[in-house]
Amino acid sequence: MFKKFVSANKKALQKFKQNYWGVFSLVFIVLLSLIALFAYVLSPDSTINANNGDVSISTQKPGFSVTVLSIPLQKKVKSSFLNYFTGKPITEQFIPILSHKFVGDTLFYKEFSVDPKIAQTKYILKNVFPTKNETAIKTNYIKTKTYWLGTDNQGRDYLSRLLIGARVSLAIGFVAVFISLLIGITLGALAGYFGGKTDALILWLINIIWSIPTLLLVIAITLALGKGFWQVFIAVGLTMWVEVARVVRGQVLSVKQMQYVTAARALGFSDLRIIFKHIIPNIMAPVIVISAANFASAILVESGLSFLGLGAQVPVPSWGGMMKEHYNYIILGKPYLALIPGIAMCLVVVAFMMIGNALRDALDVKG
């Protein structure tokens, strides 16, 4: 009886499935990616960047509830399907209140204050609402809102900011890894395949970039490109290709003498076809492992930049930026404001490292 042939890819997949922590981490990352993609659908505050808040309810504890008066603004914005992915514009004035009452055509309300004794009483006419019916106004424009993770220092919903902030951390990983793979695989393959002066020039460039501290290089590129969302992505990606290039170069040096490469040359295939269609597909195992580690490193670098004020700029939420805004509350009795995004970032980084370890074991030929 002949033994059933099992391909290398199928063997690697079987080994990966046997790694409990690797599979668990992969499921966690997939779920987090879906949450980040549909963040505005899941967030209690679906406005752009979850930026709708009031300083009167700043830094309230998790589970805090308050009555909210929503006053329609004059401008009308057309709703779009894209709003579910990019957020909805603010169309209502948001006012936390302690109490309210109707007197004739006027609505009197007492603004929220931590000390009810100093709360100010204000009024607004009914004609600012689309209807003057008191029951309809109470039903549609006066509601109780619960903040499950409390509020930040600007009175914004912390859970919404946390969910939307996951987009930045995951996006920086995907974009940075894509840029690093694009540059690293190309330069590493060219250096290893052609050798000679090409190898010396690329190796010299690799050593120069390698000798500069990563964070310092990212800061320099960010300052050159300007502060912003996409500038950070590009800056991080341009600093993470070096390790990929070194590994690819070493793999190509060992593979280019193999028989299938010699056969491809004998058939008259071009060098670029041999590199990108024959050599690179056979050396991707270590590159995949490095990519998982680079994903985690990119998230940490972005958080460091955001903490320094060079990452995603306000009001765009990011976990690093949230830690920067609230780190002083660690000694003010509300450490969870800085610890929650820190723990979330830690879980994501650990998950990617677990996936990297599982891939390393699954793709190990000697295992």
Describe this structure in words.
The protein is of the alpha+beta class. The protein has two domains: 60-147, no CATH class; 158-362, MetI-like (MetI-like fold), CATH 1.10.3720.10. The chain is built from 15 helices and five strands. The protein has helices spanning 8-18, 20-37, 39-42, 83-86, 134-141, 158-194, 196-211, 214-225, 229-239, 241-255, 259-266, 271-279, 284-308, 319-326, 336-362, and strands at 64-72, 92-103, 106-111, 121-125, 142-147. The chain has a five-stranded antiparallel beta sheet. α11 packs antiparallel against α12 (271-279) and α13 runs parallel beside α14 (319-326). The longest helix has 37 residues, at 158-194. It is elongated and about 95 Å long. 34% of the residues are buried.
Strand content: 5-15%
Total count of strands: 5
Apparent shape: elongated
SSE series: HHHEHEEEHEHHHHHHHHHH
- Give the CATH architecture of the largest domain: Orthogonal Bundle
CATH topology of the largest domain: MetI-like fold
Termini gap: 26 Å
Gyration radius, in Å? 27 Å
- Helix-strand makeup class: alpha+beta
Major beta sheet summary: 5 strands, antiparallel
User: Into which percent range does the helicity of residues fall?
Assistant: 55-70%
How many helix segments? 15
The total number of structural domains is 2
CATH superfamily of the largest domain: MetI-like
What's the overall average pLDDT, rounded? 86
Low-confidence stretches: none
The top-level CATH class of the largest domain is: Mainly Alpha
Spatial order of the strands forming the largest sheet? 4-3-2-1-5
